[in-house]
């Protein structure tokens, strides 16, 4: 239901300043409405028009569908139904005591003494000022004066409460208290209209926002609709609410999950993708959206399994060439490297090892071993850089067999052992046909993953 409406409203001050023009708005009952605009955009003038303090130069205002009339009886009715709290409480508070000040409105409405007493006491209770009722209002703090002004309006039990810059000059705690109070009135059915240049407040609080600029309404809608339109905000000389600004940056960098317009800090935090992010150097030519392979992680860097293959999607490339990437982890099981001393060569034994050991990668080091393999038809996957390639294959989960002889066996074993110790990545390693090396395996590894041969 529309409770307040203006049609072609215009107001010109006696000095010729046009403060309101072409103003057509509809305000729905029970809603929280914010008029947002720069200094001098016309908010206060509009509010004075909306409670009948000023009379339009042109156009009309309707309350519950009935046009305002400006005789004193009609004006009293309007002010009873539509209360206004001025920006500066000193403009509103003038009686010798808090009680008398709050009683001013109800007395003007011609209420009986008992009714005045009841509604003033109730209003003072609601704003938490009962104990100050006999104090002179000018001895109160700014926040307390604001409460007195609100109580004065409350005491008339208006359907609509208009508050011009309700939080100006208030410290953050007092501001929160005033907003709690306002929200309580709204909860019990009052329509609340505020003016503010605080975009953050309007964005998180209002049900509906009117954007004012140069005496006109230049935009209106839900806070999300109004505040996402940065061009419109620029026109009104305003900036985006901080939470929305941070969110758009998060979204631009590809870090937002789903589509949101967070209004509070917890909502903002919830928009972050549940992802693992990392800054990495990217080679030239890599684009946002590309996939990179970052290798294998283990130890403190592996979060889900002892070894993880890390792929990454590039989300955002910074101007310095570094990029934010989203990690995609894949748990891998390290394989193993078996060495076979070809001094004690036996083809049936090798065939059995290849089969039962589930060997998928075979290499040979040294001329003798290569010749043996060739003669007996053992297919070699690698014949140079055998140790390093085997380590890589073991890291990828493969089981490798290296055929080599004599001192080369010890050399290979030492290299692999060093790698295992330095890297912290444990994979099975040993000489299959030499007893003492298997012994070394048992001693040096806490939980050896032995090949079942
Ligand atoms: N009594 C007056 N006589 C002449 N011009 C006035 C008077 N009061 C306000 N104005 C002018 O009317 C225009 C709108 O002023 P208004 O106070 O309504 O703006 P506002 O949006 O409430 O500003 P603020 O955010 O600073 O309170 C401004 O140009 C202002 O200078």
From TrEMBL:
The protein's superkingdom reads: Archaea
Q: Which CDD domains match?
A: ABC_cobalt_CbiO_domain1
The GO molecular function terms of this record are: ATP binding; ATP hydrolysis activity; ATPase-coupled transmembrane transporter activity
Looking at the Swiss-Prot or TrEMBL record, what is one Pfam family this protein matches? ABC_tran
- The ABC transporter domain sits at 4-239
Q: Could you tell me where this protein is found in the cell?
A: Cell membrane
Q: What does this protein do?
A: Part of an ABC transporter complex. Responsible for energy coupling to the transport system.
Q: Which NCBIfam families does its entry note?
A: cbiO
Protein family membership: Belongs to the ABC transporter superfamily.
| Protein name as it appears in the record | ABC transporter ATP-binding protein
Which organism's genome codes for this protein? Methanosarcina thermophila
